[in-house]
């Protein structure tokens, strides 16, 4: 394979495995003018060989549609990749050592930024105190977001930069106090730092076979300059594609989303917070706290926003994790449908991000209202299970109900998979594995269904039904992978035997059984243009 460059006008890829419903046994593909022109067998490929600009010998590699990550915070992802990442810290002591080293290595930073601490996974289970952070930084301003980005710990010097008298205790900042602190910390990032972070994040995504990301920005998350700058940057690059969502409420928010070039006034428009920070909004109190979480929007707010978006031709969307928050979304969207018509609401494909605590009733409502479930399987891999954070926060019985992907698919609810990076890393094959091997067996889906949710599902979530699949006429967004033999993997023996038999004509995918190596990306192409080439290719 050649060095990274603009793709020639017409390319024949051959002698590989092409994952396509057009031909489950395809070994070759022709790309022309940024679109898939033909998919078929090796013998038929000979007829194209003389009429193309380039022939790529796949040497047995697998070609799949490029992944779409349907929920990303691009600048924050880039800052985590280039800055202080505490997600691997095994203890409080290790985290403080990383803070000390980072502060020493960055003497000129106005504010030190870090991410990813998770006290729930540390011995003792407590976050760092303000005094400990003051000592580790030598009294400099520091902002450290928890892994879920819904709370943070900061130094005294950072608090001194904020209006009022916020958080003068050792408790992590949450809710509005956290939003104020995050806004002040991110304001210290220079335009050059921000652009570097965005380029780093997009390049990293491309190296993982991701062709499109859905950027979830908003006034409580980033800034208008950050959001607009990212869309400008992406427009000038060959890829990955960036689809923007701006999370601001009401008619003013809808107007601002349109002005900024967003696909919707959606994404992390917070109805509640997160389970890890005790701010997800619940019908019943937490198992380890008397709290029931934080409600930022009620059903009336949601209904008004959905009406405004529907009438303006934009997607609405909400961050909702707790069962009370999901109920509020369902009630609000149903009230909007009563006002503007169910057909219009369904056609708009409004979104719910995370949607973790669902009941059979709310699953059915998602299907009725045409809601897209934009979900993150890595959350279950990280926090699920009998001994995980979900069980500690909710008790084992409620925890087992979380992230019911199989029930959503059975009900006909479209799924779009993402990472919420930097909450969990960009890791598309790991995400597919997490859904197929969910910690709660009844919520598992087939590898094929999970792969579809992470490719075609992301395109459907932005209103495109003609992309995310390698068939003639589709955008030539694809990735080339080095992997072991292909299989058809079902969640368990209850799935009909014929569906796992090669004679069924179902195209195979890599074996994602836990413990096996995940595929390695060799090349990523977006719209026919190469955006990543692996070392030595």
TrEMBL record:
GO molecular function: hydrolase activity, acting on carbon-nitrogen (but not peptide) bonds
Domain Amidohydrolase, first and last residues per copy: 54-532
CDD domains per UniProt: YtcJ_like
Cross-referenced Pfam families: Amidohydro_3
InterPro entries cross-referenced by the UniProt entry: Amidohydro_3, Metal-dep_hydrolase_composite, Metal_Hydrolase, YtcJ-like
UniProt name for this protein: Amidohydrolase 3 domain-containing protein
